[in-house]
Design a protein that fits this description.
By secondary structure, the protein is mainly α. The protein has one domain. Helix content is 59%, strand content 5%. Helix 1 packs across helix 3 and helix 5 crosses helix 6. It is found in: Membrane.
C-alpha cells in the first residue's frame, strides 16, 4: 500500500522538517514540566489525595492535556512554543478523533519504554522525522509557517 502525501517533500522542502526531532523533545520537556506543576497543584488542592493516586492521575492529566490541545490547534502548548504542529497525510490539522488516536498511541508508547525508544530512533532517522505513532497514523510534525 502506498501512502499519498499532500505534505511538503522532505527532499525538496527540508525546511519543514528541519530540527523537528529536537523541537519535539523540547516541547515534550516543556509539556512535562507544565503537567508536573499542575499535578503538584492538584496534590495540594486535594490535601495529598492525588499523591496516593499519582500514576493514574499523571496518566489522565497527560492524556487529557495532549488530546485537548492537539484537537484545538494540532499542537500542544510546548509544540506551539517551538513552532511545530501535526498534519495528517492529506495536509489537514488534527480533528478530535485524530488527536485522541495520536494521544493514545503516544501514551501507550510512553508507558512501554522499549516502544518509546523505537519511536525516538525513528524520529531521528526518518526523512519526515516520524515516530512510531506518526507512521501508523500517517501523520507528521512539521515546522509551522510564520503567521502574518
Amino acid at each position: 500500500m502506498t501512502q499519498r502525501w499532500h505534505l511538503p517533500d522532505p527532499h525538496s522542502q527540508p525546511e519543514f522538517y528541519a530540527d523537528v526531532p529536537l523541537k519535539r523533545f523540547l516541547a515534550f520537556l516543556f509539556d512535562t514540566v507544565l503537567l508536573l506543576i499542575v499535578a503538584l497543584l492538584l496534590a495540594l488542592l486535594t490535601f495529598g489525595l492525588a499523591v496516593l493516586l499519582l500514576v493514574p492521575t499523571w496518566w489522565l492529566l497527560n492524556f487529557a492535556y495532549r488530546a485537548i490541545t492537539l484537537a484545538n490547534g494540532s499542537a500542544t502548548w510546548g509544540m506551539r512554543l517551538v513552532a511545530i504542529e501535526f498534519r495528517t497525510a492529506d495536509g489537514r490539522r488534527f480533528d478530535q478523533h485524530e488527536a485522541f488516536l495520536h494521544t493514545l498511541g503516544f501514551m501507550l508508547s510512553f508507558t512501554f519504554f522499549p516502544v518509546q525508544v523505537i519511536s525516538m530512533i525513528l524520529m531521528a532517522t526518518s526523512p519526515r522525522a516520524q515516530g512510531l505513532t506518526d507512521r501508523i497514523m500517517g501523520c507528521v510534525a512539521i515546522n509551522r509557517r510564520a503567521q502574518a
